[in-house]
Design goal:
- This protein is an alpha+beta fold and about 110 residues long.
- It has one domain.
- The chain is about 30% helix and about 25% strand.
- It has helices spanning about 20-35, 95-110, and strands spanning about 40-45, 50-55, 65-70, 80-85, 90-95.
- Strands 1-2-3-4-5 form a 5-stranded antiparallel sheet, covered by helices on one side.
Amino acid sequence: MFQYQVIHNHKYEQENFFNKKELGEILNLYGFMVSMGEWKDYAIFINKNVVGFNIYRKATENPLYQIIKNLNVQNKIEKYILRDHSGNNVKKSFNLKNILETINKRKLKLVK
């Protein structure tokens, strides 16, 4: 008689990248800012512990913003980090929407 063996892969449940919803929210904001002529390029970087989305005004400059997701988070508040062009942490949050709202508020101040 044949027996089934259940294989438990705990690494499958680990996050290794932005999920589809997160990436969609980031790309929606990015697409809007590209249509406004503010942003021109982006890059995605992947590390063992973090994944990030860099936003550039020009490809030859330092990133205007970095949206970083900590994959091995002990402190839930620091799951997402927003950094500015100087590398300073602007905002830390458990919710990606808070990070994206911070970018929206900063961009609206510059446009006015």
